[in-house]
Predict the structure.
Amino acid sequence: MLHLRGAIQHYAWGDRYALPELLEVTADGRPWAEIWFGTHPRGQAHVDDSLHHPAPTLLVDEVGELPFIVKLLSAAQPLSLQTHPSKEQAAAGFSREERAGVPLDAGHRVYPDDRAKPEMIVALSMFEALCGFVDTETAVRACEAAGAKELAARVRRDGVAAAAEAVLRGETFGDVISPSAAMQQLNEHYDDSKSMVALLMHHVRLAPGEALFLDAGNVHTYLYGTALEVQGSSDNVVRAAFTEKHVDIDEFLSVATLASVTDPRVVPTVARGDSSWRSYAYRCAAPFTVMRHDINGGFTLQTSAQHTLLACTSGRAGSLQRGGVVYVSAGETVSLEGTATIFSVSQ
């Protein structure tokens, strides 16, 4: 079992206090947006185990490439409206930018790698997101409730996908008399008429322990809250709005799914347990497995997957305390004693 030190990402939308509090370290005034525990070059985790490694070493040097990244994420304001490519789209986009000679660290680079980025978000606090588009009837009702008559008419005439594309291309649809709650959150931080797209999307509110799964093409933005995020080992993000970073609306629309989708939330189900622990599975089409283990006593985990990360989000069990993340190799047995909530991610 290797104790890890994650790579901190200080993006502008991050919360200044939530993640330092989770890790029980002093806030430094900067926004702490994400902490990455993985082997992606843009955010390498280190092994931080003084018993076996006197100086921190890169996790990739110890175990090779991980196929996923575990992140601790905390948003104080909405992220960019974004989507992620499929494996095939990522490979084609990466190859195209390599042939064009676009530097990997260029601000306008869209595809820094050739991998897909499916992701699951599990709320650790109250968490809100816009994710995926609703059906025509629901969109019309939301537009009418907001007083967005022109947008409601466009949805009736052309459907949600066409209306969403028009909004994201910058077409204006008159004033909104009573903005929805999600629109208000976007408008507080961004002077952008594209906030009307919120009227066409699922506005999901998650309680702690509830989750979303976002596969390739799902259009989304996280509005606020703290969460555990698990995703493919990729940093391919195609943006459409609400950011100072590079926006490529044509590429976004070639990747995004604008058709209506069902509510993408994942309801955890009890997998197993006894009087001192209970495990919950977050079952979906993800290429990785995510489980939550609520421990009040003793707990033993026998790993079988090639790579497993354990992340403690509350309490303490053995040497694993709140904010701690460890790597567990295949065939290793981990025995923990205490009171804690621990997530296991494996593939």
In short: The two ends are 16 Å apart (CA to CA). The domain at 269-346 is CATH 2.60.120.10 (Jelly Rolls). The longest strand covers residues 289-302.
